[in-house]
Every structure is written in structure tokens, then in C-alpha cells.
Amino acid sequence: MQALGRILGIFALALASASPAMAILPSAPPETAPATAEPAQPLEAERDAGADDRIATRLREIFAEIPSLSAVEVNVAESVVTLSGTAPDEAAITRAENIAARFDIATVENTIERDVSVGSSVGAIETLGERFAGFAKMLPLIGVALLVALAIGAIGYLIAGFGKFWRKVTPNPFLAELVASAIRFVFVVVGLVIALDMLGAGALLGAVLGGAGVIGIALGFAMRDTIENYVASLMLSLRQPFRANDLVLIGDLEGRIIRLTSRATIMMTLDGNHLRIPNSTVFKAVILNYTTNPHRRFDFELGIDADDDPNAARHLGRETLKSLGYVLSDPAPEARVTNVGDSNIVIRFLGWIDQTEADWYKARSRSIAAVKSALEKAGFGLPEPIYRLRFDERTMPLPFENIEGKAQLAKPKKAPAAVEPAAEAHDVSPEHEITKMVEAERAAEPVENDLLDPDRPTE
Fold first, then answer.
1. CB 349 within 8 A of CB 317
2. Could you tell me which of 297, 303, 172 has the C-alpha nearest to residue 235?
3. Helices (H), 223-353
4. Which helix H or strand E contains 84, and what residues bound it?
5. C-alpha dihedral over 262, 272, 422, 377, to 10 degrees?
């Protein structure tokens, strides 16, 4: 049996040597991926002397037929294939090694270097030309894909162009524009996805979207304040925390609301100045609205002499406030003892007004004057702070010797009291100059720029 095996082996080798062009290796397309590696076989202890030459000859013939591997040199000794020379790129180097590894050899020593000479660019130019030729062949398909993308994008713009419809179904113009922009963006992205899928560039789309996601995160951190202000504008437009011409206190900023825009809240201070507050600040701030409830309370403090009766002063002050026509009887005025000072008793007087009929500042001013006058007429003292000076041996004596005994201090003349006209003394009507300025400002600007909606309930 061993003799028969040797005879068959010699016969096979003879056939191989008789026709050098016969393939030792089944031919495969260069583009075909290498098959899965099989388990390594043990090396033979003895090897035919002509096997190395046959493998070297076959590899040279194969490399000669491949333009990118024509400059590769092959040397085979003791079943070790040594590859040298140059190749245009790393892919060609790897390809040469994979071809050599498919022969019955021990290992491959790959020393091929990449050819970076000017002459090697000829293959690259040819490859570039092939790509341009392939691109020219794809032009009809590219045109169809582009038309599909444009058609889908146009449908999105057409749907987003129904401005009246979106303003009707959304709470305000700002949200309507946001919905329209989102529809346009979605349709454009869908059109691009379908077009790239038609061109077989789905992997490119994934890479682009992945890169866009990373860039979006970076921009989100960089534009955090802008995005926060944009979101705050959206939330304020939905919640409607105030109306136009409301008198509000936002943090420590007081004024009347002119309008709410997509970036800022515009106010007019009580001095007539414009004030722009970023919506992110407004959304996070404490908002005090003086206009929502027409009833508003004023208060002030007066001090009476420590020897006077505080209950009698409280009763007189309440009755005086009740007699004022602009002070509401429900809730009724109130007077409270808040503090006992060094030389007086402090009483706080409180009264309510209707802001639609009386101005808060005027009402408070008139009430202070009326209660003070009533207390003084009733004999209550409204003392100023009194200080006692103590002189004993621990203090330096005053220089009384410098004071002439005959000298007398001149009594200051009492200045005549300014008489306020009766009409002005009782006038507490609301002031409308700031309100008129705000209405003029709102009339001068288009309604589309205002996110305040009088038809929606306030928060």
C-alpha cells in the first residue's frame, strides 16, 4: 500500500511539472474574501525538493497578472515564502500575503513596502478615472434619488406652509412656527435617508448621522444658555403667567408688561424706561403680579408717645381710615401695635383699596397724612427719638465758662405750613400715563411678535 501511495504521488508531481501553467490552487476572484481558516496541519518531515520552486513560479505568474502586485518579488525556501518589493497600498500588501498563504507552505514572511514614488500614482489616477466613469454611469440613478428627496422635502414644506391651520391647532404663533419647522426638518431628513438608500449609501448616512449627533451634543453644551432661554420662552407662552399691561415684580424688577417675545419679556418701568429680561430669568424668578387681584392693601407706621394710650390711638386710626371714601370697608382697616421703642409706641395701620378706582401710592400718601392729623388733633404726641445725656465724674465737664450768661438762644420761627388744594387732597384716582405708554407700544408692533394670548387662561 505504501508503494502504491508513492507511485500515485510521483505521478501527480509529474503531471504538475509537465504543465507549469496548471493551477496548483483553485482560482478565485481577487475580490472574494478569504475563507475561514482551517485548523493547522502538521508539517511534513520530508518534502519534495522541487516543491519550493513550483510554488515560487506559480506565485510569480499570479502576481504578474495582477497590476497592483506586479512589482512583488517571491522567494521560497524550505516552505517559507518571502515576499519583497513594493505595492501601491496596504490593501495590495495584505492581498499578496493572503494569496501566498493559500499554498502548502509553513509561513509567509511579508517584507513588501508601500510604493510612495511619483510613478506609483499612475494606478491611483487610473482608479480615480474608473471612479469617475462609475459616477457617470450612476448619474441617472443619482438624478432619480435627488428628485425623490426634493419631492419629499417639498411635501414637508407644503404641509408646514399651512400657517393658519397650525396657528389654529396650537396655542400661540411661536409654537405654530416650532411645529412647522419640525415638520420641515423631519421631511427633509426622511428624503435624504430614502435618497441615500436608493444609492446604496446607507453606511454613509449612518456615519453622517452619528457625527451630527456628536456635534449636536457639543453644540448643546456650548449653547446651553440659548437653548435654556428658548425652552423657557416655549413654557412661558404655554403657561401665560401675566397679561399685557399687568403691573408685576419679577425678582427685584418692577414695571408693566409690554409683550412676551421668543427671547425676552419686554417691560416698561414706572419711570417710563424699557426693560428687557431674558425669558430664562423670568421663568426661574419669583413673579409678583399686582394686577391679578384688584384689591390691594397698603400699610404705614406711626409712633405715639410712650405715655399715651395705644388702644385709643389704634381706635382713632381705624375710624379715620374708615372715613376715607377710597378705603374699603371689607376687608376693614386695621391697626396693630408692632413695637415699643425707647421713646414711643409704634402702631402699624393697614387699609385696602380697589386699584381700579384708586391709585395705591396716592391712597397710602393721603392716609398717612389723615391719620397723623387726627392723632395730633386728639392730643397724641408723635415724638422724635429722645436721648438722655448723663454727666458725672467719669465724663469730662462741659466748657460752661465759655457761655455768656446773658446770652439767650433765639427761638426759630415756625415756617408756615403748605396748604394743599382740597381737590388734590382727596384725589386718589389711578394714574394711567404708564398704561397709555404701554398701549401705544403694543399698537406700534405687529401682533405676531407677541406670545401673550388674552384668550388663554393665565397660570
1. yes
2. 172
3. 224-239, 279-284, 310-323
4. strand 80-87
5. 90
**Is residue 319 within 8 Å of 358, Cβ to Cβ?**
no
Q: Beta strands of 230-333 (E only): which ranges?
A: 247-250, 253-260, 264-268, 274-278, 287-289, 295-305
Q: Please, are residues 83 and 111 in contact by the beta-carbon 8 Å criterion?
A: yes
Per residue in 175-232, pLDDT (tens digit) is 788 888 889 988 988 888 888 888 877 677 777 777 777 887 887 777 777 888 888 9
d(CA 116, CA 75): 23
Burial class (CB in 10 A: 0-12, 13-18, 19+), 71: middle
The pLDDT score that the predictor gives to residue 46 is 65
3-state secondary structure of 249: strand
Mean pLDDT of the residues in the chain: 79
Alpha carbon of 445 to those of 155, 255, 333: distances in Å?
33, 19, 43
Q: By C-alpha distance, which of 158, 157, 183 is closest to 170? A: 183
The rounded percent of the chain whose pLDDT value lies above 70 is: 76
Q: In which residue are the cell numbers 409654537 written? A: 175
pLDDT digits (tens, 9 = 90+) for 149-185: 999 999 999 998 887 888 777 777 777 888 888 899 8
CA 362 to chain CA centroid, nearest Å = 45
Q: Where are the alpha helices (DSSP H) in 161-278?
A: 163-169, 173-198, 202-222, 224-239
Which of 50-59, 65-74, 201-210 is the least confident region? 201-210
* Radius of gyration (C-alpha) of the chain in whole angstroms: 49
Q: From CA 214, how far away is CA 222, in angstroms rounded? A: 13
What would the grid cell of residue 123 be? 494606478
Amino acid at site 443: A
- pLDDT on residue 1: 43
Max intra-chain CA distance, the chain:
161
At 80, the amino acid letter reads V
Segment (H or E) for 77: strand 72-77
The model's pTM is: 0.55
Q: How far apart are the C-alpha atoms of 280 and 265, rounded to whole Å? A: 10
CA dihedral 46, 50, 55, 58 (to 10 degrees): -160
Q: Looking at residue 193, what is its pLDDT?
A: 82
301 — phi, psi (to 5°)? -120, 140
pLDDT tens for residues 79-131? 889 999 888 888 889 998 999 888 888 889 999 988 776 555 555 566 667 77
| Main-chain dihedrals φ then ψ at residue 365, nearest 5 degrees | -60, -45
